Amino acid sequence: MEVNEKMMDNKGKGLLYPSQSVTPIPNEESTWRPPPVGSLLASVDAGWDAFSKKAGLGAVVRDEKGGVVKSSWSHIQYCASAEEAEARACLEGLKHLIDIQRFPSTVETDCQRVVQAAYSLVPDRSASWSIYSEIQDLLRTNPMLGLKKIDRSSNQVAHGLAQLGKRESSGVLSESVPIGLSALIANDCKNCVL
């Protein structure tokens, strides 16, 4: 089946089938916003290369002051699609929040398809069904966790971490991000009440 180029964006994310519809999600934010007092927010993203099938995942967990609790980036040697990479990034973000155990907490992603599949009552039949099933199980067993769609412009730090992972690098930092991403954290914190 041919995919219409108008249905794809510059990252290879788009509708899998012409009949597949994507409903806009309200309250999409255009800049990073801190979570409510006492909760955490994990911003996640993925970078995928259609030629090599390699992917990078990035996640940054922050508190209500914009302070970094944890950041991570990882490399996936083989990943079938951008959708799979984004779903894996969301799963990683949820696992980070569960490990930290500060609730309520939310994972933010710029991939609408992942959010819709995570909250769908209809079993997913895509190639990423097992990842979606695990995400649904985590959300069901941890009712103080959430997943929401945000605008790509709100996800710059996670995007930078995913790009590090895409370069076959992996790492985890506590209370910081790699030096090259510090300016993005500072810029995001303009919206924080300290």
TrEMBL record:
Pfam hit, one: RVT_3
Question: GO: which molecular function terms?
Answer: nucleic acid binding; RNA-DNA hybrid ribonuclease activity
What are the RNase H type-1 domain coordinates in residue numbering? 44-163
Which InterPro entries does this entry report, sorted A to Z?
RNase_H-like_dom_plant, RNase_H-like_EbsB-rel, RNaseH-like_sf, RNaseH_domain, RNaseH_sf
Q: Give the matching PANTHER family.
A: BNAC02G40300D PROTEIN, REVERSE TRANSCRIPTASE-LIKE PROTEIN
Protein name stated in the entry: RNase H type-1 domain-containing protein
What's the source species for this entry? Lolium multiflorum
